[in-house]
Amino acid sequence: MSSLGASFVQIKFDDLQFFENCGGGSFGSVYRAKWISQDKEVAVKKLLKIEKEAEILSVLSHRNIIQFYGVILEPPNYGIVTEYASLGSLYDYINSNRSEEMDMDHIMTWATDVAKGMHYLHMEAPVKVIHRDLKSRNVVIAADGVLKICDFGASRFHNHTTHMSLVGTFPWMAPEVIQSLPVSETCDTYSYGVVLWEMLTREVPFKGLEGLQVAWLVVEKNERLTIPSSCPRSFAELLHQCWEADAKKRPSFKQIISILESMSNDASLPGQCNSFLHNKAEWRCEIEATLERLKKLERDLSFKEQELKERERRLKMWEQKLTEQSNTPLLPSFEISAWTEDDVYFWVQQLVRKAGDSSVEMSGYASLFKDNNITGKRLLLLDEEDLKDMGIVSKGHIIHFKL
């Protein structure tokens, strides 16, 4: 089962007393339980089968990584048993009234906890591990207040830059992960920046936007979460560095730890930070304004997609009518977007014949479309102004081509 020869402690299913569901991890549900023979409170992730996560956890040992106890291997009962973090996830904490107690010392301590855990995974673990799904839901708070990184279901042992499948949750995902491009460990740096933003703002990243729309905004529009104008400069600069589009420009976690240490020695920062945290009402509107702008972009995109679909539907109807009239297939495909310039040329010829206009001007339009390199994709995007720019100025003629 393990290429590293990991020796798993096997825990009997009957040796566990299950209580409430305390969350869903990647590929499984997590329950609070009692390990009866050890008289220990534990967390159990129930799985359909044991895969890489147990192998990864079994070789990790760090204060800021959830502790692995063993596995359940009794078909159909499979699971991973780890320490139980009684104070819940960082996400739940941030989005509760408890987060109002946060001050700079609190944020710096927790930001350092996560950074040290990630540095261990990348540089100090027996084998380098890229987490790939770092987010506030996958960071838990132990009884002593220490943050611990958990849920390694999406993680991979890593010896070199690798190609990633699409895993994780879009608001926390680096652009290269969203695009399934080759990645390095700095994809986790991007995610760390989002977690730090959550701690500073106590807001949900890209709240109200669909995951795929977030992906489009981050990749195609290079959008990032709003950093309020009154956010202390050192925090803002760190966030910007973490969210660089070029993964090579993002800081390593060793560098992040060093940056956090320097910030801790800045005597003016606590006052700035605490003022920022306590005056949320003054800057929250900046985040809300950005969300409204992004939602408008989303609506505009949706409208454009619907408009293109309607144009293509009308084109298909026209083509089908022409086919029925001639009793022969006119074009190689009903997928308008796949038409070549020759296909469009032929389609315009048929349209002119159907219109019954034998004027020299109308009959020359097929060549006009070809001269302007109009393919199926470009045809779908043409509007009235485009047609006029091409030289089709007659309103009566424009009606024939305006989709």
TrEMBL record:
InterPro entries: Kinase-like_dom_sf, Prot_kinase_dom, SAM, SAM/pointed_sf, Ser-Thr/Tyr_kinase_cat_dom, Ser/Thr_kinase_AS, Ser/Thr_Kinases-Pseudokinases. GO terms for molecular function: ATP binding; MAP kinase kinase kinase activity. It comes from the Eukaryota. GO terms for cellular component: cytoplasm. The keyword Kinase applies. Residues 280-328 form a coiled coil. Keywords: ATP-binding, Coiled coil, Kinase, Nucleotide-binding, Serine/threonine-protein kinase, Transferase. SUPFAM superfamilies: Protein kinase-like (PK-like), SAM/Pointed domain. Residues 16-277 form the Protein kinase domain. Residues 339-397 form the SAM domain. This is Mitogen-activated protein kinase kinase kinase 20 isoform X4.
